[in-house]
Amino acid sequence: MNEIASKLKTKNVFLDTNPFVADNFFFGGARFNQLQKLVENDIINLYITHITKREIEKKIVDFFTEAKTSFKTLINKHSILKSNDYLREINNDGLLIKTEVELIKKFKEYVKSCKFTTIDINSVNIERVFNKYFDGMPPFGTGKKKSEFPDAFVVAALNDWCLSNNEEMYVISADTDFKNSLEDYPNLIHLEKIDQLLDLTIDEFTHARATNALENSKEFIGEEIKEFFADELYTFYIVDATGEVDSVTVNDLNFIDPFYIQSTEGNAATITTTVEMNAILDVSYIDEYLSLFDKEEGTYLFEVSGSTQVDFDESFEVKFNIEFDENDYLTISHIILNNDKSFEIALFSEYYD
After folding, report:
1. Rounded to a whole number, what is the largest CA-CA distance in the chain?
2. Distance of CA 66 to CAs 18, 72, 96, 306, Å?
3. Rounded to an integer, what distance in angstroms lies between the CA atom of residue 241 and that of residue 336?
4. What distance in Å separates the CA atoms of residue 271 and residue 268, rounded to the nearest whole number?
5. What is the pLDDT of residue 85?
6. What interhelical angle do 149-165 and 126-134 show, nearest 10?
7. Which of 169, 170, 173 is nearest to 18 (CA)?
8. Structure-derived torsion over alpha carbons of residues 294, 300, 301, 306, reported in degrees to the nearest 10
9. How many Å apart are CA 275 and CA 261, to the nearest integer?
């Protein structure tokens, strides 16, 4: 076993559904590419179950169903958009259905290219699973959530495989019920995210240097993130009004996760972490009650503007690249916030009531 692999307790890795959801099913992204490299270099082996495959495919279908509904609502509100052939094709479901099919195909191709081993659930002791349900044990809980049956069968199948093969297995899942259900199975080692696994695969010397540079520059990194957050106004999406964020004042930033080293190349590394941010957003918007909207034209005949401030208090992932010299002096670049997804904000609290 090489030096990198020796840091891992086991080569066996199972991915639950939510790591795929968290990365927007972007199989060409850095995380999934790095996993594939680890497989190709015989550092890890990836596992999945038929239940997990079906859950992932259903998630993709559900997301596109929601997207189609949201887009139709937008088109109906702003009918002028129907004049565009491309947007009209989306509204007729053709393009979205095609994209949905292509994404499911990419998932299947990724499973094949990464040589996922599919673990059979047919040998799971059904009575044991139902006993957990009736006893209110994880993943069901005291509420006896029937929706957790798939996870219960998956966990039991993973444990059976480990016992049969005298192996351990990393199980990557951010689902709390799924995590709690692993407590009775010492052969199943929980990790919350893919980045924790990737961090374990960095050679010790490079990991120590990068970690030292990161810890010594923590305040500097925080200031860079705050400045970037304040500048990227386009990353906000107002869910209950037509408007935009005009300016941002960051009050506070705290790191609530360690720095995870996703990959390294020489003196460069890709880092992920989670921060908690408090900021005040200055927002201008169209007052829909005082403005006049023409439904046929899909435009406002006249607009009355309003302004307000929104208290932003959220935690989110931050990804960035670093370079460090022989003195471990650090520079930071290519910052990505919230997995490159927009931050949703509401101007009127009743939107979420």
Report:
1. 72
2. 18, 10, 11, 30
3. 26
4. 10
5. 62
6. 130
7. 173
8. 140
9. 16
Helix pair 30-40, 94-113: axis angle to 10 deg = 30
CA nearest to 152, candidates 181, 123, 176, 194: 181
Which pLDDT tens digit goes with each residue over 206-249?
888 888 889 989 999 999 999 999 998 878 999 888 889 999 99
CB atoms within 10 A of CB 181: 27
Residue type, 120: D
Q: Determine contact, residues 194/86, Cβ cutoff 8 Å.
A: no
One-letter-per-residue 3-state SS of the chain: CCCCHHHCCCCEEEECHHHHHHCCCCCCCHHHHHHHHHHHCCCCEEEEEHHHHHHHHHHHHHHHHHHHHHHHHHHHHCHHHHHCHHHHHHHCCHHHHHHHHHHHHHHHHHHHHCCCEEECCCCCCHHHHHHHHHCCCCCCCCCCCHHHHHHHHHHHHHHHHHHHHCCCEEEECCCHHHHHCCCCCCCEEEECCHHHHHHHCCCHHHHHHHHHHHHHCHHHHHHHHHHHHHHCHHHEEECCCCEEEEEEEEEEEEECCCCEEEEEECCEEEEEEEEEEEEEEEEEEECCCCCEEECCCCEEEECCEEEEEEEEEEEEEEEEEEEECCCCCEEEEEEEEHHHCCEEECCCHHHHC
Closest CA to 192 of 111, 106, 273: 273
pLDDT by residue (tens digit) across 84-94? 665 666 656 66
76-133 confidence digits (pLDDT tens): 666 655 556 656 666 566 677 788 899 999 999 999 999 999 998 877 666 665 566 5
User: Do residues 341 and 233 lie in contact, with contact meaning Cβ atoms separated by under 8 Å?
Assistant: no
Q: φ and ψ at 62, to 5 degrees?
A: -60, -40
> For the CA atoms of 143, 18, 339, 193, what is the dihedral angle to 10 degrees?
100
Burial string for 310-332 (b: 16+ CB within 10 Å, else e) reads bebeeeebbbbbbebeeebebeb
